[in-house]
Amino acid sequence: MSQYTQQPQFPQAPVPAAPARNGLGTAALILGIIGALSGLIPLFFWLAGILGLIGLILGLSAKGRVKRGEATNKGVAVAGIVLGLVSLVLSVVGAVLTFKAVDEAVDEINKVTSGSSATRKPAGSDKPLEKAKDGEDATGKALAAGDSAAYDDDLTITVSGPAAWTPGEYAIGHTKGHKAYKVTVVIENAGKEKFEAALVTAEARAGKEGVKAEAIYDGKVGEPFTGTILPGKKVTAVWAFDAPADAENLTVEVSPGFEYNASVWDLKL
């Protein structure tokens, strides 16, 4: 009998494998999706930048785990990296657009608060323009027929002398016993930006007492300016006004828009 008794051999249970550490990849994907969506929303560029940066870092860390065999979600990690980069790009684009919009808004506010100073340019004169206020010339007098009011943005408005005119049977704004006069208004855009002509308004007063002269609409006469005036272009309109029979002058005031001072013409009848 053998001195040593052989012990029976039992198979050992396999050591369980460590669970995959896929959390970083999943987090990177979620943050990348939220960041990309935030980048599409105005004023949320800052959130897209933060989430994109965190998602990118987590995605790179998750990809490292995949290489070491600690994680199995390589596709999720790569998607998180890509979306993180997309979020960062959208964040930069959003910041640029936001700051540009703010600058433009500030410029518009400055224009409104400061106003545009009108200058007088007598018809047929090559003399330097004289700075003026509200369409008046350097002496404080209104512009005369044929004079032009030029603005800081190179917008020029010219009003012709009044011409006697007989309204049609169905004209609107004419009073029986009064006289009607029509003037030609020319707007020239010599600036670099387009001009919205639909904002142009006009009113008139007649005689020494400054009685309101009603605008007359008769077919094409009296139609307002419409549309956009491109740089280097001009438009012309004919306006008509109703004045008492004994009026000797017609004061026409034209305003190019909310951001401009009105210009005034004193026209002899």
Automatic annotation (TrEMBL):
Presence of the UniProt keyword Signal in the record: yes
Keywords associated with the record: Membrane, Signal, Transmembrane, Transmembrane helix
Occurrences of domain DUF4190 (ranges): 24-93
Alphabetical list of Gene3D superfamilies matching this protein: 2.60.40.1240
Transmembrane feature ranges: 43-63, 75-99
Compositionally biased spans, kind Basic and acidic residues: 123-137
Domain spans labelled DUF4352: 152-261
Species name: Streptomyces wuyuanensis
Region named Disordered: 114-137
Protein name per UniProt: DUF4190 domain-containing protein
